[in-house]
Design goal:
31% helix, two-stranded antiparallel ribbon, alpha+beta, 6 strands, globular
C-alpha cells in the first residue's frame, strides 16, 4: 500500500493525473482522493526532495493505492501525468502527519473511478434482471 501525493495548478489537472494513474498506470485506488493544503504539500515535497520547488502548487490531493511503493513509482514513471506526483514512503518525516491529515480531510470533488463496479460481464439473456457473470477463466460465460 502506497501513499500518493498529487500537487498542481488546477483541479482539472489533478483529476486528469489521477485518471491517468488509474487507467494507464494500472494503479488501484483504495481510498478516495482527499483535499490537502497546498502549502503543506509543497513543504512536504521540499523536505522529500531536499531542495526548493521552482513553482508553488495551488491545489493538492492525496490517497492510498493497493500497490506497494516501488511498483507505484515504476508505474508512474511510465506515464506523464499533467501534475506533480510524489509517492510518499513511510521512511519520510511527513508521512505520519500526511496520513493523519487524510483522516480529517474532505473528499476531493470531481473524482469518479472508471473501473467497473460489478464482478464481470452482464448476461442480458435473462429477462427482467441482469445477472453478473464472474470471469474466473477464459470463456467462462459460454454454456457447455
Amino acid at each position: 500500500m502506497a501513499l500518493i501525493l498529487v500537487r498542481g495548478e488546477s483541479n482539472s489537472k489533478l483529476l486528469n493525473a489521477i485518471a491517468d494513474m488509474e487507467r494507464h498506470g494500472n494503479l488501484n485506488l483504495m481510498t478516495k482522493p482527499k483535499v490537502i493544503d497546498a502549502d503543506f504539500a509543497d513543504s512536504l515535497v521540499e523536505n522529500i526532495l531536499n531542495s526548493k520547488l521552482r513553482t508553488k502548487s495551488k491545489v493538492a490531493t492525496a490517497f492510498f493505492v493497493k500497490e506497494d511503493t516501488t511498483l507505484s513509482i515504476m508505474q508512474i514513471k511510465k506515464i506523464h501525468p499533467p501534475a506533480h506526483v510524489v509517492v510518499v514512503s513511510d521512511e519520510y518525516e511527513g508521512y505520519d502527519e500526511l496520513e493523519a491529515l487524510l483522516k480529517s480531510s474532505n473528499v476531493f470533488q470531481g473524482y469518479h473511478s472508471h473501473r467497473a463496479k460489478n464482478d464481470g460481464m452482464i448476461d442480458y439473456t435473462i429477462k427482467g434482471k441482469g445477472r453478473h457473470i464472474k470471469n474466473e477463466k477464459l470463456n467462462s460465460y459460454i454454456k457447455k
